[in-house]
Design a protein that fits this description.
With 392 residues, this protein is α/β, with parallel strands linked by helices. The chain has 2 domains: 11-179, Rossmann fold, CATH 3.40.50.1970; 185-388, Dehydroquinate synthase-like, alpha domain, CATH 1.20.1090. It has helices at residues 22-28, 42-45, 48-58, 75-87, 99-111, 185-203, 211-233, 238-252, 265-277, 281-296, 301-311, 321-338, 345-348, 355-362, 377-388; strands at 11-14, 33-38, 62-66, 92-97, 133-137, 149-154, 159-164, 172-175. The strands form 2 sheets. It has a 6-stranded parallel sheet with strand order 1-8-5-4-2-3, sandwiched between helices. The longest helix has 23 residues, at 211-233. The structure holds 5,6-dihydroxy-NADP and zinc ion. Residues 39-43, 71-72, 97-101, 103, 138-139, 141-144, 147, 149-151, 179-180, 182-183, 187, 191, 194, 252, 267, 274, 281-282 line the site of 5,6-dihydroxy-NADP. Zinc ion binds next to helix 6.
Amino acid sequence: MNDFNFYSPTEFVFGKGRENDCGKYVKKYGGSKVLIHYGGQSAIKSGLLDRVRTSLEQSGIGYAELGGVKPNPHDTLVYKGIDLCRSENIDFILAVGGGSVIDSAKAIAIGVPYEGDFWDFYCTKRPEKALPVGTVLTIAAAGSEGSGDSVITKQDGMLKRATGSDVLRPKFSIMDPQLTQTLPAYQTACGATDIMAHVFERYFTNTTEVEITDRLCEAVLLTMLKETPRVIADPDNYEARANIMWAGTVAHTNIVGVGRQQDWNSHGIEHELSALYDCAHGAGLAVIMPAWMEFVYKHNVMRFCQMATRVFGCEMDFENPENTALAGIRAFRRFLHDIGMPINFDELGANQQDIPKLVEKFGLGDGRTGGFVALSSDDVAQIYQIAANAKL
Ligand code: NZQ
Ligand code: ZN
């Protein structure tokens, strides 16, 4: 196991109706005037936004509002948010929504105290200062409620890029699983796929002797295999929703990934798809992640056998372990299909003729990237090609 620091300062406030206390938590973390940041219609329709306003009013906290965050959030709204925070003397940002809203809130939070263009932080600069952010989470997926990451798309050129820093970790995140009961089955499944992908990005590692994090990863994956079909069949199943919601946070605070090298190429490769086609990040991962696995499994066949046997319950073929590795990958793709995810370019609405463009936007040039297997541009092109033609 490698040396590590684990810093996860977020207070997670979990359970039914806990959003009614959001004013109390804003106050606890020093907010006196809040920007309520939200997405499209879901938080309005469910009455959540009204409950958030009431809670803030009851705690004597003033607020301004900025809605309209779209999935795969754009820089344009971030600039508006920064201006609004400055003109309204906002000192706390409350994100009410999913990963897109939270990431947009984090971008505003680093932009407000910075004199330059906030996009600098999505190029090379590391954030060191940010307004405090709290969240009321409405979808189990990105894990942004506990992570120090934010992903934004620059509209000019449709560049989807990430930044990361501990200053971006939310002060608190309110997690009421009931709020996720209004999610359409497709969004629930996209979220589940993203959660599993966050685990796999960490699971496939070259670091040895990491039994504890291997087992934690497998626990999250097994939970997702059990609970996702339950909520797809019964969207109001509170207990299954609750398990998935916590799994989403555990998958991405990095508690399952400490002390080990991680990969993250599937995410980078997927981000070009959601930037170009505006598809859901989880749907893009359903197409890319098994394709990435097929491309890299020979690098460590036994690690893929471990996944296949411990997570997907495959029989170990001692004569030919590659069969077991491939059976595990097939089982993963089958699961994704069964929960309603696309598994190839056609089903996603992507076009194989765009592969050279996707590779170019990925921006690797002659370099290599990735922790488990360092990929070249040509490798990335091959992974897109496998994904384009994937079958069950
Ligand atoms: O805008 P509304 O109307 O709220 O609709 C949203 C949106 O259309 C809807 N939704 C959310 N909660 C709902 C609901 N609909 C009904 N009932 C509810 N309770 O769901 C749709 C998707 O929302 P979004 O926030 O985009 O989903 P998600 O949480 O998957 O976030 C995706 C974004 O996060 C980034 C992705 O790249 C993508 O841009 N990621 C962020 C990460 C991070 N910050 O740590 C890591 C991830 O790997 C990921 O890259
Ligand atoms: Zn993700």
